[in-house]
C-alpha cells in the first residue's frame, strides 16, 4: 500500500523582539541587525502584521493524505476513428484481446467514453480535496485520440504505486427492461490475480454497498441480481497488481439509466458513492 505517514513541514519558532533599549546610543548600531533579521525571516510572527509559519505553514491531515488512486475512464471518444490501432491484439493476461473498443452509447448517441470521462473528472476533484493523489489512465476525451490499450490500463496501478484502481464504464445491453449497475471483480487466476483477488473482492463489496446506499439499483440482468460479477477475461483486471474493480454504472440503452448517467445530478450521486468507497476501503 502506498499510504504514507502524514509529514509536517519544519516549524519556525518566532524569535523574540529585543526589549526596548535602555541606552538610546546603541539604537543606531542595532538597527541594521534588526533589518537583516527581518529580511531573513527570523522575526516573522514577532512583528505586527506578519504571519507565523507555525500557524500558516502546516495543514491539518486530510482523510486521504498518502493515498494514491487510479481512475480509469473507459474507452476514448476517438477510438472509432482509429480501427487499426484499437483492433490490434495485446496481452490480456495469458491470452490476446483487442487493444480497446469504441464503447457503447445511449439510444440518443451520447457516448460511453464521454460519460466515463465526465464522471472520472468529478471523482478526481473530490478525492483530491480529501488529500488523495489521483491518476487517470487517459488525459482527454477527444475525437483525435485513441486508447490507451487494456494492457496499459491494467498496469497503471503498479505504475503509479496506487492503493487501488477503479475502471469506469457503462453497459450497452439490449435485453428488454435491463437496467442497474454491477461491479466486476477479477476471478482467481494463479499467475495473474492471486495477489489482488481478496482485496479486489472486498473493494467490489464496498463499492456495491456505497452505490446501494446512494439509491442505485443492482443490475437485474447479470450476476443473478447480486450487483457483483466475477470475470477472468478482462485485461484491465488480469494485468493489475493493485486491488481493482470495474464499474458498469448502468445500462446506457435503458432510458432511465441513461437519464441518470447523463444528468449532473446523477453523476454527483455516482461521485459520492465512489468517493465513499475509496474512503472506506482505505480506512
Compact description:
By secondary structure, the chain is of the alpha/beta class.
List the helices and strands and how they pair.
Elements: H1 27-40, H2 53-56, E1 68-73, H3 83-87, E2 89-91, E3 96-98, H4 112-129, E4 133-136, H5 150-154, H6 156-159, E5 164-171, E6 182-186, H7 197-213, E7 228-231, H8 235-238, E8 244-251, H9 255-262, H10 264-282
Helix pairs in contact: 4-10, 7-10, 9-10
Provide an overview of this structure.
- The chain has 283 residues and is α/β, with parallel strands linked by helices.
- It folds into 2 domains: 27-56, no CATH class; 68-282, Zn-dependent exopeptidases (Aminopeptidase, 3-Layer(aba) Sandwich), CATH 3.40.630.
- The chain has 10 helices and 8 strands.
- The strands form 2 sheets. It has a 6-stranded mixed beta sheet. Strands 2-3 form a two-stranded antiparallel sheet.
- Helix 4 packs across helix 10, helix 7 packs across helix 10 and helix 9 (255-262) packs across helix 10 (264-282).
- It is globular, with a radius of gyration of 26 Å.
